[in-house]
Design brief:
Largest sheet: 8 strands, mixed
Strand order of the largest sheet: 4-3-5-6-7-8-9-10
Distance between the termini: 24 Å
Number of helices: 5
Number of strands: 12
Radius of gyration: 17 Å
CATH topology of the largest domain: Fructose-1,6-Bisphosphatase, Chain A, domain 1
Structural class: alpha+beta
CATH superfamily of the largest domain: Fructose-1,6-Bisphosphatase, subunit A, domain 1
Helix content: 25-40%
């Protein structure tokens, strides 16, 4: 397992991102899943592109996706075709495509791609994590803990008083807003 699978996952994310951007800004059909969260035709399109790619190139691998029943196999790919579907629906850009893979219980690679900015975050076990934009790769590194914290806040789901209380407790130097959970983590990175 190595760069071949990571490059493959990144290419799938780019392909799915390009496809859903054809729908972005249009009126799209939305349904509610059993947990009350929305799913759109864009979610299903991205899911289909990623699923078909994995099945074609790695037919022995398993797949777990929010949009289908788990497919058993050797290694397992994890897909969230659009993390932050509400951001896609609201057209605020705060959504991303997530593709990851585990070997057994061990995470081995991951891709988070934000189509509206064309920024991708990639990581591979033993090979580092990178931000990729405009053909350039920047190594992401964990900095020593300092008091200059950055807080990334969801733009929905929390009452204002809870947010204020956390801001007072953490006293971050910088505050960023973000939709999908993957993008929140990447903004910190």
């Amino acid at each position: 397992m190595g760069m071949k699978e990571l490059d493959f996952a990144l290419d799938l994310a780019y392909e799915a991102g390009s496809a859903i951007m054809q729908l972005y800004g249009r009126t799209i059909h939305t349904k509610s899943k059993s947990d009350g969260t929305p799913v759109t035709e864009a979610d299903l399109l991205a899911n289909r592109i990623i699923l078909e790619g994995i099945r074609k190139h790695f037919p022995q691998d398993g797949i777990v996706s929010e949009e289908l029943e788990p497919v058993p196999g050797g290694r397992t790919w994890y897909i969230d075709p659009i993390d932050g579907t509400k951001g896609f629906i609201r057209r605020n850009g705060e959504f991303a495509i997530h593709i990851g893979m585990c070997t057994g219980e061990e995470p081995t690679l991951g891709v988070i791609y934000q189509p509206t900015t064309q920024i991708a975050y990639t990581g591979i076990r033993g090979g580092g994590a990178y931000k990729q934009q405009d053909g350039e790769r920047t190594l992401l590194q964990v900095l020593p803990f300092e008091r200059d914290l950055t807080a990334v806040i969801s733009n929905h789901g929390f009452d204002k008083e809870t947010v204020r209380r956390q801001i007072r407790a953490l006293q971050p130097k910088k505050i960023l807003l973000s939709g999908g959970s993957g993008l929140r983590l990447m903004k910190i990175a």
